[in-house]
């Protein structure tokens, strides 16, 4: 504020109705801002109050599961705990409950030992308090859990507007409060008459600034926003049933709020993908405009969106289930708010519908499908009017590449599909990436089988980084590898950033082949037909050991009210399964599918929606390659894989369709395997591939194998397995049929 300015000097003592009205408007705006901040704070405190008893129970349960011997770790082995254990205090929880008096009564335990034991136990207790997470069990709701869900429901219902309103109200209050204090004499005639010359000048200068703030706030619609959010926060939950139903539908938003309010956010380094500090700091300072976005972001998701904006051409390699699509939409919304008008999303046909739905639901952006017979007309319309064009890899080849700067962001989903630079689809994507100011490659499995293929993806984005990513970096191990690709590559894992994700239990179901199964298998081996060997266990369904076990799992899931997804690589296996389930003891549950590669993309999504919407237990049959990409199947809590797959990424993707952010129940995965033969050999092969993937795509300190360990084609692996099985069984007709 400027004391003694000309306008202020001339206006001292001459305060009219306009100034008084302006101060009154500023006062009302300030009160509304303070109210919404207070209403939000009370809603947050209600969540904390509901969370505390649940958290205390979880801490107690965790401490009761920690053996007292763990106290040795805390004290580097200095404690003698034998007599403590013999006295019945076998866990850290029991020790804390006993207290110093009870411990002092144990023979051979002196006061010094008691003090050391309790100090160590308290240190463990503090660590548990900081790390234990509360899981909300939708199948066994009880009063304390219901109270927490209802408290969260208020904030979830208020939506992203609540956070936006609170942030803007806090910023406005900080600026407006001191100005209103200075302008107090201008609120009435008497105040200005009694004020000294300096106070009068400050009051009039403050009125000028208040006018600017109030006009700006009213143009932005802040008074209405504050009022609406306050109403939403004060309304409360309509009923516990409504809150529970909403939790099942939007569990991601509930858990996101819970993590934020409880302070149990993921490790900062993990949320930032363990990027080097210089890259992470540049990303942190990147602004993120939310005015075109309809969804709140988790901390790691906001960082991911900022990474794309700050680094311009990148690969987002988050593990499946972490919301890569939401992060992409956040980037699109930010760029639209900055004035960019044209965007392009390229994806497999199977997820076209999912992309259009997500963009429409999560943003204010216009979206157009550029696919099908009218795609060229749609493309011309997109060129003229702008928005987000969503197309397939094949359709993109038929569109002219954009001019420089014309497209604000190119998003390539399932980008590992363009890892081979010799294919036309890869060449088309590379041309578009070169012409676009920003490019986002999205893939949960960027490594696939060869590090060299990952380098091909990087080359489309940054030739310099790709060139720097030499064999030396690969051979040294993943630390050097991750550092080399940090400017263009960000990856986070579920266990690092999703503390609320329900457990994933994976069971290998080994079955002894029946005599009939063995006969079918021998015929396939004799013919050298690798694919027939893989599905031989289902080809004589009347006496199939695998099929019997599959039916048992589906029946048990149905009795527990659970939905099941059955994956197989083979259409004919799915047909066998469908017949068996339709005619056996599981015939009561509705069945959906088979969802195969021949089912149109839009129909695939409808099948999944119908499956999710079916009340009670249901079964979805799906070809693993068709349904393992892009489609979300959180309604399922049981997953069955009929046979092991050639690549670990195929199985990972399929399981992640169910076990992903938004899932509210533990997921049980059953992989059906036959002892001996092709299944056993493939499982061993998968384990080796998975270890290499972990070494390079995760943050392992040392790579567990060189690239040569996986530089063998799937065809060669299949041929090797067939020959080994022919030798083991002593059968051959001299032919080998590899996967096609």
Automatic annotation (TrEMBL):
Entry GO MF terms: ATP binding; helicase activity; hydrolase activity
Q: Does the keyword ATP-binding apply?
A: yes
- Which InterPro entries does this chain map to? Helicase_ATP-bd (IPR014001), Helicase_C-like (IPR001650), P-loop_NTPase (IPR027417), SNF2-like_sf (IPR038718), SNF2/RAD54-like_C (IPR049730), SNF2_N (IPR000330)
Per its UniProt entry, which superkingdom is the organism in?
Bacteria
Query: By its UniProt entry, which SMART domains does this protein fall under?
Result: DEXDc, HELICc
> What keywords sit in the KW lines?
ATP-binding, Helicase, Hydrolase, Nucleotide-binding
In Swiss-Prot or TrEMBL terms, this protein is called DEAD/DEAH box helicase
């Amino acid at each position: 504020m400027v004391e003694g300015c000309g306008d202020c000097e001339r206006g001292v003592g001459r305060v009219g109705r306009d100034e008084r009205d302006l101060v009154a408007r500023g006062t009302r705006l300030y009160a509304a801002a303070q109210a919404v901040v207070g209403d939000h704070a009370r809603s947050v405190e209600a969540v904390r109050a509901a969370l505390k008893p649940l958290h205390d129970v979880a801490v107690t349960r965790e401490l009761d599961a920690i053996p007292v011997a763990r106290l040795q770790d805390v004290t580097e082995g200095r404690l003698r705990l034998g007599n403590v254990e013999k006295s019945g205090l076998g866990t850290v929880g029991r020790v804390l409950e006993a207290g110093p008096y009870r411990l002092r009564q144990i023979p051979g335990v002196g006061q010094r030992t008691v003090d050391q034991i309790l100090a160590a136990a308290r240190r463990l207790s503090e660590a548990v308090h900081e790390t234990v997470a509360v899981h909300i069990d939708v199948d066994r709701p009880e009063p304390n859990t219901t109270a927490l869900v209802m408290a969260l429901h208020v904030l979830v219902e208020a939506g992203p507007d609540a956070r936006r309103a609170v942030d803007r109200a806090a910023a406005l209050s900080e600026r407006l409060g001191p100005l209103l204090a200075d302008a107090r004499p201008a609120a009435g005639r008497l105040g200005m008459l009694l004020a000294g010359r300096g106070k009068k000048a400050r009051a009039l200068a403050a009125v000028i600034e208040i006018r600017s703030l109030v006009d700006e706030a009213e143009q932005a619609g802040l008074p209405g926003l504050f009022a609406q959010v306050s109403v939403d926060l004060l309304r409360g939950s309509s009923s516990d049933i409504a809150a529970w139903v909403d939790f099942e539908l939007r569990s991601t938003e509930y858990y996101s709020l819970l993590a934020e309010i409880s302070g149990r956010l993921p490790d900062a380094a993990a949320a930032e993908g363990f990027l080097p500090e210089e890259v992470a700091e540049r990303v942190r300072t990147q602004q993120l405009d939310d005015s075109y976005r309809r969804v709140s972001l988790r901390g790691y998701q906001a960082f991911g969106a900022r990474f794309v904006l700050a680094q311009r051409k990148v690969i987002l390699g988050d593990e499946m289930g972490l919301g890569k699509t939401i992060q992409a939409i956040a980037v699109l919304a930010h760029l639209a708010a900055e004035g960019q008008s044209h965007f392009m999303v390229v994806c497999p046909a199977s997820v076209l519908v999912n992309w259009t739905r997500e963009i429409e639901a999560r943003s204010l952006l216009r979206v157009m499908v550029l696919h099908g017979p009218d795609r060229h007309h749609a493309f011309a319309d997109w060129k003229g009017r702008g928005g987000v064009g969503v197309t397939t890899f094949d359709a993109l080849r038929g569109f002219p590449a954009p001019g420089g700067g014309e497209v604000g962001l190119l998003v390539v989903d399932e980008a590992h599909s363009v890892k081979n630079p010799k294919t036309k689809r890869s060449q088309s994507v590379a041309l578009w990436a070169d012409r676009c100011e920003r490019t986002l490659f999205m893939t949960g499995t960027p490594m696939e089988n060869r590090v060299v293929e990952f380098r091909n993806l990087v080359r489309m984005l940054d030739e310099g980084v790709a060139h720097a990513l030499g064999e030396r970096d690969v051979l040294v191990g993943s630390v050097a590898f991750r550092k080399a690709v940090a400017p263009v590559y960000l990856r986070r894992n579920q266990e690092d950033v999703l503390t609320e994700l329900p457990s994933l239990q994976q069971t290998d179901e080994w079955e002894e082949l029946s005599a009939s199964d063995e006969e079918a298998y021998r015929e396939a081996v004799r013919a050298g037909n690798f694919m027939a060997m893989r599905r031989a266990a289902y080809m004589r369904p009347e006496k199939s050991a695998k099929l019997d076990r599959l039916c048992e799992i589906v029946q048990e899931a149905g009795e527990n009210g659970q939905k099941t997804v059955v994956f197989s690589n083979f259409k004919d296996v799915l047909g066998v399964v469908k017949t068996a389930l339709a005619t056996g003891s599981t015939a009561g549950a509705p069945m959906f599918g088979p969802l195969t590669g021949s089912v149109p993309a839009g129909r695939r999504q409808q099948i999944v929606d119908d499956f999710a919407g079916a009340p009670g237990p249901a079964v979805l049959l799906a070809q693993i390659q068709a349904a393992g990409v892009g489609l979300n199947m959180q309604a399922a809590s049981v997953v069955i894989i009929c046979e092991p797959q050639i690549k670990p990424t195929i199985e990972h993707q399929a399981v992640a369709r169910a076990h992903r952010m938004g899932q509210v129940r533990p997921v049980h995965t059953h992989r059906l395997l036959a002892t001996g033969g092709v299944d056993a050999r493939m499982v061993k092969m998968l384990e080796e591939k998975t270890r290499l993937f972990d070494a390079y795509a995760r943050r392992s300190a040392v790579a567990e194998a060189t690239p040569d360990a996986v530089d063998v084609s799937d065809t060669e692996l299949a041929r090797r397995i067939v020959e080994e099985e022919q030798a083991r069984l002593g059968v051959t007709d001299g032919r080998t049929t590899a996967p096609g």
